[in-house]
Amino acid sequence: MAGSYPEVAARFYDAVYAHVRDGTDKAFYLARMAAAAGPVLEIGCGTGRLLREALRRGVDAWGIDVSPAMVERCRAQLSQEERERVGVADAVSLRLERRFTLVAAPFRVLSHVTAVDDQLRLLGAVRDHLVPGGTFVFDLYVPSLKLLLEGLPETVDFDGEWAPGRRLRRIVSSVPADLARQTNRVRMTFVWEEGGERQETWEFDMRFFFRFEIEHLVARSGLKLEALRGDFADGPLTEGSREYVVTCRRDP
Q1: What contacts 24+ positions apart, CB below 8 Å, involve 82-87?
Q2: Which CATH architecture has domain 7-142+209-249?
Q3: Measured between alpha carbons, how far is residue 126 from residues 11, 42, 122, 252 in Å?
Q4: Residues with Cβ < 8 Å from 40, sequence gap 6 or more?
Q5: 3-state secondary structure of 237
Q6: 55-85 tens-digit pLDDT
Q7: HSE, side-chain direction, 13 A CA sphere, residue 208
Q8: H/E/C letters for each residue in 120-144?
Q9: How confident is the model at residue 252 (pLDDT cuts 50, 70, 90)?
């Protein structure tokens, strides 16, 4: 399954992303979930980084993820009654009986969907699962032309503890992008202490997008583009922006 995180990534996800991501997008998505006047679906809920807090705040939140390893870890951190709210599913072929006031796809979910036909199927599935007037919010990274051409040298983006007294480092890198396919090949290496030093590497492709490509995809899907911002504080998209933050609506 495209975008399916392996066990090693799921195991250390909370430790890493509490450090490298929460300060970027967590408040934004939780505010929108809390403000939704109805049920909320999180696509790519992972280990529940956002979903668990939304449920604590009383949001009628549901989640899907394509990775069984991520869903298993998410469910383990929920109450018995809440576990039915999370399931393994591919958003490209999503078929649920429930409809939602808000659908959110945080942290570059669509970048794991590399084929245009699948991107349109995902957007169409979201439209079909929104109530009339419902909102879809997602984000993508703004591609750096320098990184596309040169790749990313090995960089330690996390160096801390995954458990008390046990060190974890994550090393990320990428090769020059495949410009014809608009994909980056990313490598993540986890090095951790557990009965000695252990190491495991994961490689995957991420699709990068440009502004007007996003606008055309949304228009083709039948959703209405409401806003395309450059950060999670509703700032405009500028040359210095690192995030696309996209808000769409299903017409009433």
Answers
A1: 82/55, 85/51, 85/55, 85/61, 86/45, 86/48, 86/51, 86/62, 87/63
A2: 3-Layer(aba) Sandwich (3.40)
A3: 28, 11, 6, 15
A4: 33, 54, 59, 60, 61, 62, 100, 101, 102, 103, 104
A5: coil
A6: 999 999 999 999 999 999 999 999 999 999 9
A7: 20
A8: HHHHHHHHHHEEEEEEEEEEEECCC
A9: confident
Q: How many residues does the chain have?
A: 252
Q: Over range 40-52, report the average pLDDT.
A: 97
Pairing status of strand 100-105 against strand 243-249: unpaired
C-alpha 239/C-alpha 221 separation (Å) is: 27
The C-alpha atoms of residue 39 and residue 110 are separated, in whole angstroms, by 22
Burial (CB < 10 A; 0-12, 13-18, 19+), residue 225, is middle
| DSSP annotation string for 19-37 | HHTHHHHHHHHHHHHHH-S
How far, in Å, CA of 6 to CA of 65, rounded? 12
| 176 CB-side CA count, 13 A | 5
Domain edges within the chain: 7-142+209-249, 145-207
Q: Are 208 and 176 in contact (CB under 8 A)?
A: no
Residue 114 has pLDDT above 90, yes or no: yes
Q: How many C-beta atoms lie closer than 10 Å to residue 44's C-beta?
A: 23
- For 108, the token pair is 């570059």
Give the helix/strand (H/E) hosting 64. Answer: strand 61-65
Closest CA to 90 of 4, 215, 160: 4
Q: Hey, is 115 helix, strand or coil?
A: coil
